[in-house]
Design brief:
With about 500 residues, the chain is α/β, with parallel strands linked by helices. The chain has helices spanning about 5-10, 20-25, 30-35, 70-80, 100-110, 175-190, 235-245, 260-265, 280-285, 290-305, 320-325, 330-345, 375-380, 420-425, 430-445, and strands spanning about 1-5, 40, 45, 60, 85-90, 120, 145-150, 155-160, 195, 250-255, 275, 310-315, 350-355, 455, 465-470, 475, 485, 490-495, 500, 505-510. The strands form 5 sheets. An 8-stranded parallel beta sheet has the order 11-10-9-5-2-1-13-12. The longest helix has 17 residues, at about 330-345. It binds alpha-D-glucopyranose. The site of alpha-D-glucopyranose (GLC) has 9 residues, from loops.
């Protein structure tokens, strides 16, 4: 089981209001108690933070905001002592505009070797005043920005599929791949156990950067027909990166792959490419039995064909939190508990996003002046973006910032979270946190979770039941009324069970 840390929001050790690696180190005991096997730490490399660290200006250093290299070394050493592995985010698709390469590209002018590391093009139309093609940025606005050349005159344009502060690298340039390999080895040699590869379906661009047939894509929308992603050339890149990983047999590479088609998705986890790929199907599926069943079938089918392990996640730092997605309030909590047990019963690797184990809802009423996601500005203040799922974690006490920081948190925290602090939830057996702890422990110790085999089991309409090879039976009741459970001992349930009745919106594990 992997635990995703969004470092800005996890724990702050120096009182500047932004979480850091010192804060993470102080909380490793908590993560050990939770029972996690490995951490995925979102980007902590040097960055001007235009996109929460996904705009990297030096991929082989840790930003001082997070505590510098020494702080990472301490996290790795202590996590290893506690039996946890540490993976970190790497961002191959783009750099920060402040990366020395981009500064050199601007200074060197059209046609230079420095510009060839990125996608610079002349504009279209008289005087080159139109962007080179009609692509839109995932964060809104055009995907091209025009630069001012050394002579002070507007000149070429550069491609940025994300924010203008994130120029796309040209992976056809051998220097780009060589530098990324150097970055991988730098961290692996330092003891990192692997990577989450950002936008792993990006990197390879369509030949000639042609116009898109339908450039009117929504913001943060993932679509298999989007020609900017999932181009065949990306697999050659992953094969190259895999050769580096193979020099470090302990290490794992997990790709962020927003591809729906089962066959195309599976291609990323062929034996000579990524070890694992993020599968967002459960995170995109409403609380509906047929849809959940379909998501599970596709997830398993996509990777079975190539002999890879499935992965599961209900949320991450880009997605509305599940409690809110499932309806919010008591209903959202009940369904999130049910889905946590369903997810943790499935074969494969589970990724839990920090705060999911506390049942945190999305914060949808952040004041506008607090919003930091570039989407807010880029959309002309029409889309609030992803800050609502990035609000810092409540640890202790009755008032914000709940010991997250000694200062003012970088995003305001709701006063109602007094009920959701780690401190409160550790004391209550019926809390979301206690449910996660019990489930994770059972999952890692009981033989009923063994084997990779999986079969659906007959169940009443509106319900789902499946059996693992090891013997675990997982039953989800997505109807509005209780159902009778099949025979067997109840190992764990998302709500208390009386008279063998599984209440509405809940899940039980039986052996
Ligand atoms: C990935 C990250 C997201 C980031 C984007 C650009 O989708 O998960 O947070 O904004 O890549 O790097």
């Amino acid at each position: 089981m992997f635990y995703q840390v969004y470092p800005r929001s996890f724990a702050d050790s120096d009182g500047d209001g932004v979480g850091d690696l010192g804060g993470l180190r102080e909380k490793l005991g908590y993560l050990e108690l939770l029972g996690i096997d490995a951490l995925w730490i979102c980007p902590v490399m040097r960055s001007p933070m235009a996109d929460g660290g996904y705009d990297v200006s030096d991929p082989r250093d840790i930003d001082p905001l997070f505590g510098g290299l020494a702080a990472l070394d301490e996290v790795v050493a202590e996590a290893h002592d506690r039996g946890m592995r540490v993976t970190m985010d790497l961002v191959p698709n783009h750099t920060s505009e402040r990366h020395p390469w981009f500064a050199a590209a601007l200074a060197s002018g059209p046609g230079s070797a420095q510009r060839a590391r990125y996608h610079f093009r002349d504009g279209r139309g008289p005087g080159g005043v139109e962007p080179p093609n009609n692509w839109r940025s995932v964060f809104g606005g055009p995907a091209w920005t025009r630069v001012v050349e050394a002579d002070g005159v507007p000149g070429q344009w550069y491609l940025h599929i994300f924010a203008p502060e994130q120029p796309d690298l040209n992976w056809e340039n051998p220097e780009v791949a060589a530098d990324f390999e150097r970055t991988m080895r730098f961290w692996l040699d330092r003891g990192i156990d692997g990577f989450r590869i950002d936008v792993a379906h990006g990197m390879a661009k369509p030949e000639g950067l042609p116009d898109m047939a339908n450039s009117d894509t929504g913001m943060l929308v993932h679509d298999d027909d989007d020609p900017r992603f999932n181009n065949p050339g990306v697999h050659e890149i992953h094969r190259r990166l895999r050769k580096v990983m193979d020099d470090y047999p302990r290490a794992v590479a997990i790709g962020e792959v927003w591809v729906d088609d089962d066959t195309r998705f599976g291609e990323y986890v062929r034996p000579d490419e990524l070890h694992l790929a993020f599968n967002f199907r459960l995170a995109e599926t409403p609380f509906h039995p047929d849809r959940i069943r379909d998501a599970v079938d596709h997830s398993l089918g996509a990777v079975a064909a190539v002999g890879a392990s499935p992965t599961w996640t209900l949320s991450n730092h880009d997605i509305e939190r599940e409690v809110t997605r499932y309806g919010g309030g008591a209903l959202g909590q009940a369904r999130a508990r049910a889905m946590a047990l369903l997810e943790l019963a499935l074969p494969g690797a589970v990724f839990v996003y920090n705060g999911a184990e506390l049942g945190l809802p999305n914060v949808d009423d952040l004041p506008e002046n607090a919003l930091r996601d570039p989407v807010w500005e880029r959309s002309g203040h029409t889309q609030r973006g992803r800050d609502g799922c990035r609000v810092p974690l409540p640890w202790e006490g009755n008032r914000p910032p709940f010991s997250f920081t000694a200062g003012a948190p970088w995003l305001p925290m709701p006063a109602e979270w007094a009920q959701l602090t780690v401190e409160t939830q550790l004391e209550r057996l019926d809390s979301m946190l206690s449910l996660y702890r019990m489930a994770i422990e059972l999952r890692s110790t009981r033989p009923e979770f063994g084997g990779t085999g999986f079969q659906w089991f007959g169940s009443p309409p509106g319900c789902l039941a499946f059996r693992r090879d090891g013997g675990l039976l997982c039953v989800l009741n997505a109807t509005d009324s209780p159902i009778l459970l099949p025979a067997g001992e109840v190992l764990l349930s998302s709500v208390p069970i009386a008279a063998r009745k599984l209440p509405a919106n809940s899940t039980a594990w039986l052996v």
